[in-house]
Design a protein that fits this description.
Helix content: 55-70%
Number of helices: 9
Mean pLDDT: 77
Strand order of the largest sheet: 1-2
Number of strands: 2
Largest sheet: 2 strands, antiparallel
Radius of gyration: 25 Å
Strand content: under 5%
Distance between the termini: 53 Å
Low-confidence stretches: none
Structural class: mainly alpha
Shape: elongated
Order of helices and strands: HEEHHHHHHHH
Length: 204
């Protein structure tokens, strides 16, 4: 199918970019609103409030959007007296932007749940096959074998991180070298074994 492979590649790269951005926990701009990424803490709070963006069967409306935006705003403070007025401002601005803002925020939420398991999926979505950003795979691999914290691994030089992964991979019987010199060495070793076998067969 013409263009299918290219479209799939772009989609995959987009998904990987979304996975990598979770490392930085930056403030993002969504439909004109500055928002922090959803955390497990705010996810639980939204589920407790039965917010439509993360709860199946509940409406995605301006009230749900206002609550989500306020909770993830850099200006959010729990039990703040400014909550009421700021939320009114958000609701007014959302109505000016219209339903396009609701769908834009919905897409932003869905992106953050793209790797969620069945129990954490915000709405009735099909679970995705397990895929992770390479950075998270390295964190899990190194942290489960060496006494480094997540923060220490994130600040580790990548060349050092690759060496740790290489050492761990070498412990397994199905280890496959990755460097170009290893690949060339492997090819020559295979060629040498084939030549030796041929010569033995001829001499026999």
């Amino acid at each position: 199918m013409p263009g299918y492979a290219e479209a799939m590649d772009r989609a995959f790269q987009r998904q990987q970019c979304i996975r990598e951005r979770a490392i930085f926990n930056l403030v993002e701009k969504v439909c004109g609103f500055r928002l922090k990424l959803i955390t497990l803490r705010t996810h639980s709070a939204l589920r407790y409030c039965q917010n439509g963006y993360v709860t199946a069967g509940r409406p995605i409306d301006f009230e749900a959007a206002a609550a989500l935006i306020w909770m993830h705003s850099p200006r959010f403070r729990a039990n703040s007296g400014r909550y009421h007025w700021f939320r009114i401002f958000i609701r007014i601005r959302l109505r000016v932007l219209g339903k396009k803002a609701l769908s834009g925020i919905d897409q932003w939420v869905d992106e953050q749940y793209q790797d969620a398991t069945d129990s954490l999926l915000p709405k009735k979505q099909k679970p995705r096959p397990p895929v992770t950003a390479e950075s998270f795979s390295l964190i899990e691999l190194i942290a489960s074998n060496y006494p480094y914290s997540e923060s220490e691994i994130l600040d580790m030089p990548v060349a050092r991180a690759w060496q740790y992964r290489r050492c761990l991979n070498m412990r397994t019987p199905d280890y496959h070298p990755m460097q170009e010199t290893d690949r060339v060495d492997d090819e020559f070793r295979i060629l040498h074994r084939r030549l030796s076998s041929t010569q033995k067969g001829e001499s026999a």
